[in-house]
Amino acid sequence: MDLVLFLAVFAVLFIVGMPVGFAMIISGVAYALSAGLDMAFFSLEMFKSVNNFILIAIPMFILTAEVMNASTVADRMFDFANALVGWIPGGIGHTNVLTSVIFAGMSGSAAADVGGIGFLAYRAMVKRGFDKPFSAAVTAASSCIGPIIPPSIPVVVFAMVVPSASIITIFLGGVFPGLIMGLSMMVYIFFIAKKRGYPVEKRPSPRDLLAALQRGILPVLTPVVLLLSISSGMVTISEGAVITVLYACLLGWGVYRVLDRKRFLACCASVFSSCGTIMIFFAAGKVFSFVLSRARVPDLLSGMFLGITANPIIILFAINIMFIVLGFFSEALVNIMLFAPMVVPFATALGIDTNVLGVMIVINTVMGAITPPVGTLVYNVAGLTKVPLEGVFREVLPFVVGYTLILVFLIFFPGIITFLPSLIL
Predict the structure, then answer these.
(1) Which of 101, 117, 295, 369 could be joined to 3 by an S-S link, Cβ 3.0–4.6 Å?
(2) Counting Cβ atoms within 10 Å, is residue 193 exposed (0-12), middle (13-18) or buried (19+)?
(3) Single pTM value for the model
């Protein structure tokens, strides 16, 4: 009865439009009052959820992206990517994707990609003659690559709620899947551009290519600096995130001479705003997961899955489908915090690698940002570009199908995920 009340309160608050974090906390309070639990215990659990050193990495990754956007880095990366792939049929569409792949190594956030370099790429596509809905869809779908290629905020969250997971292993494991996602987008853009007659950029001369490389090489090295510092064992993930901020500030202030104190403080203010929402989710997720654990929901879920089959491949399919469906209704971080701890124990008991599962779960949950009805990235892009939502969702659907096929491919060939970590670590 207590669990029914808990779920009913959460469902009602969610339906009426209350922010998910607050709905989770209030429904947890209703459960505590109904079950006669000590409210002080809930407060302590919420505090413990945000009192974690690893969380420093999240604002640092966001600050890196903000500093890069405040500098001339976005323009430099765009010119570099355009020189590399803009001449291929699909033109600026390929540039949009490659820019997102490069920027993914700096931000770890899909929203940061959309609001920064993604919007720049969208305007360039429209200016060159691409349809607005298609340009917006490419921007939204390519932004999903941000949390897959390291650094990644969802991976940090996954490692927090699943203690057996290794952040650096999942970071490295996400590199090839992220690159494959970008390549799949470029293949689709190639054929669509041929069909619709989208323009192609002029092929650059070796001299122009070298000039673009010189302008963009330092920002491109950001993920290299991060991964080398962490994989060497010299720094933790949080310390590595601070190093990327210092590197970004060095570029913006010392090399390009465009980052002043006013712009840096504006970047910090934006980080505070973004992190406030994320931290609420951590506190609320702790309450929510405590209630579900006390009601033995993870055991029920495990029994349901294992009652169907003990085949690891089928279990992986079931877990992936579950997270895809969850992505229709709630955000990535919420789904990871609440449901990853439930499925990982029985998945690993069947011999499924925790880090492989972590990469798949992150891809699944990020896909939810471009699927209706939640589709936060599509809403963000549509709001920035003033393009009708229906048109963006229609154009983004083939990319969702492509990402889903990649997930199926990863289920049968998990070595794509484990190859780079086994090579480096």
Answers:
(1) 295
(2) buried
(3) 0.88
Q: Alpha-carbon distance 96 to 117, whole Å?
A: 9
Contact status, residue 411 vs residue 360, Cβ threshold 8 Å: yes
**91-95, 156-160, 181-185, 286-290: least confident range:** 286-290
In angstroms, the CA 155 to CA 149 distance is 10
CA distance 80 to 211: 9
Distance CA 167, CA 35 (A): 37
Region class of 349: left (phi > 0), else alpha (psi between -120 and 50), else beta = alpha
What burial letters (b/e) apply to 274-309, b meaning 16+ CB within 10 Å? beeebbbbbbbbbbbbbbbeebebbeebbeebeeee
The number of folded domains in the chain is: 1
- Does residue 335 contact residue 327 with C-beta atoms inside 8 Å? yes
Q: Which of 29-34's residues contact partners 24+ apart within 8 Å by CB, and which partners?
A: 30/5, 30/6, 31/2, 31/3, 31/5, 31/6, 31/291, 34/1, 34/2, 34/5, 34/6
- Kindly write down the DSSP assignment for every residue of 42-65, as one continuous string: HHHHHHHHH--GGGGHHHHHHHHH
Give residues with Cβ within 8 angstroms of 301, minimum separation 6: 342, 343, 346
Cα→Cα distances 285→156, 260, 289, 338, Å: 15, 38, 6, 6
pLDDT grade, residue 230 (50/70/90)? confident
Q: Which domain holds residue 293?
A: 3-424
Q: pLDDT tens-digit profile of 21-32?
A: 888 889 988 888
Q: What is the pLDDT of residues 136-173, one digit of tens each?
A: 999 999 999 988 988 888 998 898 888 889 988 999 99
